[in-house]
Specification:
By secondary structure, the protein is mainly beta. It has two helices and eleven strands; from the N terminus they run βββαββββαββββ. A hairpin with a 6-residue loop joins β1 and β2. The longest helix is centred in the first third of the chain and has 6 residues.
């Protein structure tokens, strides 16, 4: 499995200034991870902390917040994890889903994808049920 980096633009809550960071595209990472100093410089503050399991099986706790990100000219809020200074910035799966982007490893790029959505079916006699892709309908 190949990896590649992309320019990820990140801004603080006021969206006054975006900073461009080269982030490794990592579909194995749930959340986008950035050095805490970058986020603090932009005025991003963690609103909670979360525990994470690392590749070696160890567990760590880190700050967790939300900030503005820009990918392919589009802006949106995304969760972000405050990590150590030595950590390589990672673009995680949740941010990719927020921006409706998929990974093209062969060409080393992100590509637009359609989002998946369950839909509520019309209620049948005696009650309704949820139908959609997860149920094979």
């Amino acid at each position: 499995m190949g990896t590649f980096t992309i320019p990820l633009e990140v801004a603080g809550p006021e969206r006054r200034h975006y900073e461009t960071i080269d982030a490794l595209v990592d579909s194995g990472a749930t959340y986008t991870v950035l050095p805490a100093s970058v986020l603090e410089r932009l005025g991003v503050v963690p609103h909670s902390s979360r525990r994470f399991v690392l590749a070696d099986g160890s567990r760590v706790e880190r700050g967790f917040g939300r900030t503005w990100m820009r990918l392919d000219g589009r802006e949106d809020l995304s969760p972000v994890v405050f990590w150590d200074e030595s950590a390589r910035p990672l673009l995680g799966a949740v941010t990719l889903e927020i921006f409706s982007l998929g990974i093209d490893l062969v060409n080393g790029r992100l590509m637009p994808v359609d989002a998946l959505m369950l839909r509520a079916a019309e209620p049948e006699q005696g009650g309704g049920e949820l139908r959609g892709a997860a149920h094979g309908h």
